[in-house]
Specification:
Oligomer: single chain
Helix content: 40-55%
Radius of gyration: 31 Å
Distance between the termini: 58 Å
Bound molecules: adenosine-5'-diphosphate, zinc ion, magnesium ion
Strand content: 15-25%
Number of domains: 3
Strand order of the largest sheet: 2-6-7-10-1-11-12-13-14
């Protein structure tokens, strides 16, 4: 569908403009302004106290760990960390917000002016980050699947006061797929730096998508629509695709887009209006009187910066540069720290990064996929896989025997060398031993021999296969090829001496 939309839009000379606002729950043990726990799935209203219930007189105290994680995110996204930032009250009425306001950062956020630069399938992208600010989550209203929910709304305040960051991008994205890809990259970064668990189903990561259209070549922005609370990459892409069709059709019919907030209705595959600008909230922001301005020292900022791990995109570029890997392989291997470490340890043990990449991308990934498991439960150590690769590189085993050895190693803790010895899998490269087999195969397959001599090159492959079979895959394929060819041509023509 996305291709259709894109060509539709460009046929009409219309350019999509997209900006995202992403909420990510910080990986703290306790809430942002009180000591209550943050564990997902606790029984309703078990993780609450006067502060997060908003009872009168209860005073918020800022969680240092939340600030540190927010700084990590800001720095990983190339932002400037502001030495002074200010908490504000964002006032609105909703049953899941007992205080009647949410504590957030407004005019003076913790981190500003970053960017995320990366190379996607369709080329380089730069998405500017406007800001990263700290805020608290609200409670949760339950309208279904509990008690008398056909008659009552139930309120669970466990989530109330859970620490969040909101990441706001400039409207730099130009297609639904690009927006989904960006969101996936952002998720990978937040996971890599230990700031968020990436669990979109549980709502620890969610996104609001702002989208408008404008005539291609125009620099002024069109009127935007905000699609709220999207919790999957696929929904994000589909919601944007739908919204672009709707807005493009509106313009084509001579109408105009109304600024409003819409919701994605997955069941019906469309967005529906939630509220228009006229009914938009006036949040009456003002500084939170119960919290002093947040001050962070240069030293603290420097410490947090120094502790940042290498990020997936930088690691991918390093793999391309230092190991000469193709971009797609580098992207896969660099995606998580665990997978990257497994690959790099294997490459070091093997002394052959290209072969290590092929094994990890091939046999290792295939097995993990089949088991539906991740690299953390891989059934072979990088050191042992590296030693197997060395056996191939030194000609002890050929490629197909190596796969058999790998299958016996995997999950058994056995060493490649032992398996090769115990099962007699070492490669036959000795000309005398191979010639014997080649001679026998030629004698047993007169048809194929005749076809080859009649000009059918493909028959050689069949005969190589027969030699492999006779040696249980142990023959050196290159030598087998040479010996067969020599034997087959020698009987027909005079022996050649220049080989
Ligand atoms: P608001 O004042 O409505 O909150 P902001 O300017 O703060 O709007 O932007 C909120 C989000 O909307 C940002 O992610 C921004 O990139 C995006 N955005 C702003 N204007 C547009 C537009 N015309 N089209 C698409 N996205 C936009
Ligand atoms: Zn509490
Ligand atoms: Mg705004």
């Amino acid at each position: 569908m996305s291709d259709e939309v894109v060509s539709d839009a460009s046929a009409a000379g219309i350019e999509p403009v997209i900006g995202l606002e992403i909420h990510a729950q910080l990986l703290t043990n306790t809430k942002i302004f009180c000591g209550c726990g943050t564990r997902f799935g606790a029984a309703p209203n078990m993780n609450v106290c006067p502060v997060c219930l908003g009872l009168p007189g209860a005073l918020p105290v800022l969680n240092r760990r939340a600030v540190e994680l927010a700084m990590r995110a800001g720095l990983a996204l190339g932002c400037t960390i502001q030495r002074h930032s200010i908490f504000a009250r964002k006032n609105y009425f909703y049953p899941d917000l007992p205080k009647g306001y949410q504590i957030s950062q407004y005019e003076h956020p913790l981190a500003t002016d970053g960017e995320l630069a990366y190379v996607a399938d369709d080329g380089p992208h730069v998405v500017r980050i406007t800001r990263v600010h700290l805020e608290e989550d609200a409670g949760k209203s339950l309208h279904t699947a509990i008690g008398d929910s056909d008659r009552y709304t139930y309120l669970d305040f466990n989530r109330s006061g859970v620490p969040l960051i909101e990441i706001v991008t400039h409207p730099d994205l130009r297609a639904p797929r690009a927006a989904a890809d960006f969101f996936a990259r952002l998720r990978a970064i937040l996971l890599a730096i230990g700031v968020n668990d990436g669990n979109m189903e549980e709502g620890s990561l969610r996104c609001d998508a702002n989208v408008s259209v404008r005539p291609a070549g125009e620099s002024a922005l069109g009127v935007k629509v905000e699609v709220k609370n999207i919790n999957s990459f696929r929904f994000l892409q589909r919601a944007l695709e739908h919204e672009l069709v709707r807005q493009t059709e509106l313009l084509r019919a001579g109408g105009h887009v109304v600024q409003e907030t819409r919701l994605w209705d997955e069941a019906n595959g469309r967005t529906v209006s939630m509220r228009s600008k006229e009914e938009a909230h006036d949040y009456r922001y003002f500084p939170e009187p119960d919290l002093p301005p947040l001050e962070v020292s240069e030293t603290w900022i420097a410490e947090v910066r120094a502790a940042l791990p290498e990020l997936p995109e930088a690691r991918k570029q390093r793999f391309i540069r230092d190991y000469g890997l193709p971009a797609a392989d580098a992207a896969h291997l660099a995606d998580t720290e665990e997978r990257a470490r497994f690959f790099e340890d294997t490459a070091a043990s093997a002394g052959n990064p290209k072969a290590a990449s092929n094994w990890v991308m091939g046999e290792v990934t295939r097995r993990l996929k089949a088991a539906g498991a991740g690299i953390e439960v891989v059934g072979v150590t990088p050191a042992a896989l590296g030693r197997l690769i060395r056996l191939v590189d030194t000609g002890v085993v050929n490629g197909s025997a190596a796969k058999a050895v790998f299958a016996r190693m995997y999950g058994s803790g056995r060493e490649a060398e032992d398996i090769v010895r115990a099962e007699g899998l070492s490669q036959i490269g000795d000309a005398g031993e191979l010639t014997e087999v080649v001679t026998r195969v030629i004698a047993e397959h007169e048809d194929a021999v005749a076809r080859f001599r009649g000009g059918n090159e493909g028959s050689l492959g069949f005969l190589v296969g027969q030699v492999m079979r006779a040696t249980r895959g142990r023959a050196n394929p290159k030598k087998t090829n040479e010996l067969l060819r020599r034997a087959l041509t020698a009987r027909e023509a005079a022996p050649r001496t220049d080989e």
